[in-house]
Amino acid sequence: MSWQLASLLLLGGSTVLLFIGLPVAFAFMAINIVGAILFLGGDAGLSQMLRNSAAAVINFSLTPIPLFVLMGEVLFHTGLALKVIDGIERLVRQVPGRLAVVAVVAGTVFSAISGSTIATTAMLGSLMLPVMLSRGYNPVLATGPIMAIGAVDMLIPPSALTVLLGSLSGISISKLLIGGVVPGLMLSVAFVGYIIARATANPALAPATVVEERSGWAKYELLVCYVLPLVSIFVVVIGAMSGGIATPTESAALGALATMALAAAYRALSFDALLKALRGTVGISAMILFIILGATTFSQILSFSGSTEGIVSNILGAGLTPFAILAGMMLLLIFLGIFVDQVSMMLITLPVFMPIVQRLDIDLIWFGVL
């Protein structure tokens, strides 16, 4: 039943994200309220919690989050994402697991023009998953690449979660965004290699299908007319930041403006599509910001209770090498990822991880990308 559940999540889009994310947000806030009463001094602690929450939400460095999310929502609801998939499919030749490879490549391209992981996975799930299942693909091979491409979307800018990580940890947001490009591409190549190897070893996982061969202009039409212009959004965002022309917030604004301008130029930006995109942006951004409400209070509670210093001292005093400690952190993140979302993982682990990383003198950009 796991693949049916995965299919439901992929097809659900932002609605499912809110269904899963809001209970986590409420639970996190409830824990913070109890912690504030016990460790921060009753009513005074609750007042401090409110002040911390307000300060966290009005943080200007979080501004790129709704703008990056808006980019993905606009592309998703205007249907331009479908053109990207069609353009990529025409370029990918007959290889083992071809449709799964197309999903990874198209998802990577879409990651470069969308700041919303949910929009990317929902788009691929609704468009690619039914086709793969109808052609006899093993459900695991069909759903796995679609869910895995979310990791690439978190790395390749524009990325709302990268902005959140930089804001919460104090790491340079622009350097984190730029630093995720190469690892994201490496991850995509690894996914493609794995799919081809698995489909070659066991052809029953991905039955071969007849591919309509196109030549000349018909093969590159969608690439030139849709994919390349949309990828120019990635150039706008990264070029503005790496060249020092714009801050991450200004780059996000430029990216959102370029996305809507291209959608309007293609005559795909209808009022209904824009309204759906705005609603999706508000819902996803509100969920993320609601979870952030308790982030500062959570860190403060850990500090006042002595938990942070105790954990950090015990880990550093265990005689482990920096690499062993770093590997332990990554294993813990993998374990937590089974149960909670990425935002919650950041809020739970950063108050403990960052002091350790700083004391070990590990490069913060490198650690942030990890």
Strand tally is: 0
Q: Which stretches of 5+ consecutive residues score pLDDT under 50?
A: 1-13
Number of individual domains: 2
Please state the overall shape, judged from the principal axes of the Cα atoms: globular
Chain-averaged pLDDT: 81
Structural class: mainly alpha
Number of helical segments with 4 or more residues: 20
Query: How large, in whole angstroms, is the Cα Rg?
Result: 22 Å
Break the fold down into its secondary structure elements and pairings:
Blueprint: H1 2-12, H2 14-39, H3 42-57, H4 64-78, H5 80-91, H6 98-111, H7 117-127, H8 129-134, H9 139-155, H10 160-169, H11 173-179, H12 181-201, H13 217-242, H14 248-265, H15 271-292, H16 295-305, H17 307-316, H18 322-337, H19 342-359, H20 364-369
Features:
single chain; 370 residues; mainly alpha; 2 domains; 79% helix; globular; disordered N terminus
Structural notes for this entry:
There is one protein chain. This protein has helices at 2-12, 14-39, 42-57, 64-78, 80-91, 98-111, 117-127, 129-134, 139-155, 160-169, 173-179, 181-201, 217-242, 248-265, 271-292, 295-305, 307-316, 322-337, 342-359, 364-369. The protein has 370 residues and is mostly helical. It has two domains: 63-289, no CATH class; 306-370, no CATH class. It is globular, with a radius of gyration of 22 Å.
